[in-house]
Protein 1
Amino acid sequence: MKICVLPGDGIGPEITAQAVRVLDALRREGLVLEMEEALLGGCAVDAGGDPYPEATRRLARAADAVLLGAVGGPKWDALPREQRPERGLLGIRKDLGLFANLRPAVVYPELANASTLKPEVVGGLDLLIVRELTGDIYFGQPRGIEVRGGERVGFNTMVYSESEIRRIARVAFEAARKRQRRVCSVDKMNVLEATQLWRDVVTEVAVEYPDVELSHMLVDNAAMQLVRDPKQFDVMVTGNMFGDILSDEAAMLTGSIGMLPSASLDENGKGLFEPCHGSAPDIAGRGQANPLATILSAAMMLRYSLGQPGAAQRVEAAVKRVLASGLRTADIHEPGTTRVGTVEMGDAVLAAL
Ligand code: IPM
Ligand code: MG
């Protein structure tokens, strides 16, 4: 199995290194895998002006799975849009057809106090956001900024075809079958036609899944319900932009975005796996970043793309043991626990494994 490793920018290289150590340990025990690194994001811009260079494209296309750290940082913010690190991320998602983004928000019992919400509101939370990732206003045409009638006008297009909606709805229903069998579809059908179609098509797909309960919610209400009573949700399915926003909100319910992995899958189960958090340029290079979201992303990769559920479970169990033993990186540290850095956290996971 070939894995393309894209450390990226900011804390990306530090946290990815710890996930690679975990995969290396599994390899020493007999898991057959090859890892090769390439550039994506700001580091790729620095090296050759293109955030998703040809060499990376070739490697990513040939790989069975991609492990990504994080991309972006203030250093590249002033560049033209095509050269921004985010363009690399959007480019690889589109190029590999990674339309299904799975973003779990799970509260670990040990970390229930880390949330800004009351422990009784978030304790035991286990929510999966299924975000469509290659359509919507992110990719819709026409788009741009132009002068109309003597002033500048900015415009984007929210667009979804029924085939795009149908395939992401199926991912959500299939995921729900392995969980509590409830799907909540989020839209803004009271205002936006594109999302009226979204609601209609999701409702049609639901007929194929009589064993799964479907509900619908408007996005503004969903944002409110997520902080009011997040445990009412099992699987939430939504479009690219609403999913971007709601998944950050859901991540924060858990108290540490530094703990959350994500998977972006194509139609055949090939995927890109990355932590939900960003490149955290403010703490880059200081050895303080939490590598657990990236290590848990490697676990998702083992499960979803490499057909190694046993290995995935072992990695997840190792992370739980480390948390139970009281080790914490700065982002999840609280009195009475032991503060450690990125590499020590990696050491502890390896030891627990
Ligand atoms: C995410 C990020 C990206 C997105 C950015 C960096 C382009 O916020 O993965 O959620 O908006 O999809
Ligand atoms: Mg986002």
Note: Residues 86, 89-90, 244 surround 3-isopropylmalic acid (ligand 1) (CB under 6 Å).
Protein 2
Amino acid sequence: MNIGIDKIGFFTPHLYLDMKDLAEARNVDPNKYLIGIGQSKMAVIPPTQDVVSMAANAADKILTEEDKEQIDMILFATESGVDNSKSGAVYIQRLLGFKKQVRVVELKQACYAATAAIHFAHGHIAMNPDSKVLVIGADNARYGLGTKGEVTQGGGAVAMLISRNPRILSVQDDGTYWADDVMDFWRPLTHDEALVDGKYSTNVYLDFFKHVFEEYQAKTGFDISKFDAMCFHLPYTKEGFKALKIAIENADAEVATKLTREFENVRRYSNQIGNLYTGSLYLGFLSLLENATDLKPGMRIGMYSYGSGAQGEFYSGLLRPGFDKYIEHQAFQKTLDARKRLTVDEYEKIYNSRIKDEKTRKLDISSDPAKFVFAGVEDYQRQYVVR
Ligand code: CAA
């Protein structure tokens, strides 16, 4: 049975910081950020957006009433969840008006969890062919102000409808995975920002890629020439480029050139948004779909998912017949171009203004144009507004 991504939607807030401005403020050569890290802009998450509101905004764009009727499972992947007990998925169930006969759960393994969710959805649909599953990857990637990780922040949400006979990508049951308990990046329960052993984390990411890609080739007999594009988890776009270089090490020149060209399409949106944690790999896939001009049905797309701590997985998907009818060329670029550029002062103020431990606080939502917004807390209960 063909099972995979039937629809894919994305949301990131209306604010960004230009990396040249950040470089100037931090007294760093801008080329370090633009070329060395591979980021030109970074999404800034206002206090009026959190993983739930961003997820609702992403999912709302793609779902019809008929989809909602058929969805019987919502899998919410995040590593910046808003509650230690209640899942983000149950907020989505109410905010988007789903029926009550639905399974809701939140999944966590750093940036990997949305990939796990897709495979769990795959299994569920294999047993229940008429079901559809909503998979969401939503995160707010935060490091400390002035830290080395600061330039790799970002945030947003990717929503994917998983079904049989999908319109966009048929997910293959060919994954290879690798897990090991390492401390490359983590966030203690007491912390609002991630802690990271930066250089070590970049090496673990690449080591895991080598493991799973080698194993994938041995398992399937497919070498790099079988791929028409490679998508990667992109904590910052240079990291994906490093993994691509490993993948094409022994490729012939034509294959290497094609995959390098497509990688520019894969990283285009992430370069302007930053890390998305759980959604990052799938933002790269969306960016490829919207920016590449030579994709064809049947083409094989490689997917490298990585979640610190750590879990890696490589799998592939095949583009479906007619997939391009459902993709609008560069559609999301227009949204990115319409964002408001912040000064570094404004960004720092926003960074420090989010609700953390307060029992009750009402937020001013008037300057946030999104349909779903986080309006504050009342007696520790999160308040969402739908316009
Ligand atoms: N012009 C061009 N390039 C320059 C430059 C200049 N003027 N100055 C420096 N560079 C280059 C460096 O040569 C280096 O390139 P290579 O990586 O190719 O060697 C690059 O810019 C980065 O410079 P540094 O090595 O000095 O890096 P740094 O100490 O500033 O730290 C970082 C970089 C480790 C990525 C840091 O930003 C960080 O800790 N980020 C958060 C952690 C992270 O993203 N890890 C990724 C793997 S973990 C993961 O994937 C999970 C997740 O989502 C977090």
Note: The domain at 170-325 is CATH 3.40.47.10 (Peroxisomal Thiolase; Chain A, domain 1).
